[in-house]
Write a structure and sequence with these properties.
This protein is an alpha/beta fold and 336 residues long. The protein has 15 helices and 9 strands. The protein folds into 2 domains: 264 residues, P-loop containing nucleotide triphosphate hydrolases (Rossmann fold); 46 residues, no CATH class. GO terms for molecular function: ATP binding; DNA binding; hydrolase activity.
Length: 336
């Protein structure tokens, strides 16, 4: 389209300087912990380190400063945005230590969120962590993963002796979020409970709190859901949060890539490095009635169980909304 300049997503990622004062931030003492947490998934370690250096090194006051440095160094950004002010105006959460980590779906965002939480608490940079997500399902999955990691004796054994917090409590917003707590909640409950837990937890402000927003593209994009629309408003609201990191695998507003991404591990990279499998798409069967479609899906599943005996094959069936998905699931269960 005329007047629209498209640049590669990788050229939009903000580069966080690796040059910082080690007396201010000692990252090396956390290497063993990160090795144990992330294993061979080096991209997870790099995402965690990038976020911590950005927030804890003292090199940046806010996303505005990071964006300005990158704009002056990037001919691509200068080509896309006519002036520095035009670029700064695209930032979703300005004047905060905010940013987005773009990790392809299936690459383990929960490990990155837990790692960032543990380091920020252990370094004493924040007193509590609030993890926000868009649904109850995701909330329960994150709570289970965080509890598993927080109770992992081997992982805890690699925490440096200097760590100020070794046993974070994993809770939800039904109780006041105290010091050393990691609270995981869906955004709907946050608004339902306003006036109780959330207000009690942040009545003195959120400057000492790290807020992690999972699937942050929901907060950045407009939505018909009233609570989702308030998500960004909550992040920028009366609690004056300072540390705001979002995670997503779809860092786009319509067709425009986010302007505040600080780390990216794309789906193409994940597939090439064999962390994520290529999806095999099946063509639409317009001419078949429902049971015939189910029979094809079931036959395909049985075939893959035979070929790939060591793994559980998965088939994804896409529908237009949650109600349709529920009906389809019940019909498929009846068929089986």
């Amino acid at each position: 389209m005329d007047g629209i300049i498209k640049i590669e997503e990788s050229n939009m990622v903000l580069q966080v300087s690796k040059e910082f004062d080690p007396s201010v931030l000692n990252m090396s003492e956390w290497d063993d912990f990160l090795d144990c947490l992330c294993g061979t998934r080096d991209y997870q370690k790099q995402a965690i380190k990038t976020a911590i250096i950005y927030m804890a090194s003292g090199e940046y006051e806010s996303i505005n400063q990071l964006a300005k440095v990158n704009y002056s160094d990037s001919s691509e950004l200068q080509e896309k945005y006519r002036t520095e002010i035009d670029y700064i105006n695209t930032l979703q959460l300005p004047n905060k230590l905010s940013g987005v980590i773009d990790l392809a779906t299936g690459t383990g965002k929960s490990y990155v969120m837990y790692g960032i939480s543990q380091l920020m608490l252990g370094m004493g940079l924040v007193k509590r962590v609030l993890v926000l997500c868009p649904s109850i399902t995701i909330e329960k999955e994150l709570q289970q993963k965080f509890r598993t990691l927080s109770q992992d004796a081997k992982l805890k054994s690699y925490l440096p002796s200097s760590s100020l917090m070794k046993n974070p409590r994993i809770i939800d917003a039904n109780v006041t979020i105290g010091e050393s707590d990691i609270c995981i909640e869906n955004i709907h409950t946050v608004y339902a409970n306003t006036g109780s837990s959330i207000e009690d937890s942040f009545k003195f402000g959120g400057q000492d709190t790290l807020v992690l927003s999972d699937e942050v593209h929901h907060a950045y994009n407009s939505s018909g859901d009233a609570d989702i629309k308030k998500w960004k408003e909550f992040l920028l609201g009366v609690y004056n949060f300072k540390y705001l990191i979002g995670l997503t695998g779809t860092a786009y507003i319509e067709n425009e890539y986010f302007s505040d991404v600080i780390y990216r591990f794309s789906l193409r990279e994940a597939i090439d490095k064999q962390f994520v499998k290529m999806v095999e798409y099946v063509a639409k069967d317009e001419g078949l009635e429902q049971n015939a479609k189910f029979q094809k899906i079931y036959a395909n599943h049985i075939e893959f169980k035979k070929i790939y005996s060591g793994i559980k094959p998965l088939t994804l069936v896409v529908s237009k909304d949650i109600r349709s998905a529920d009906c389809l699931a019940n019909e498929f269960i009846d068929f089986l």
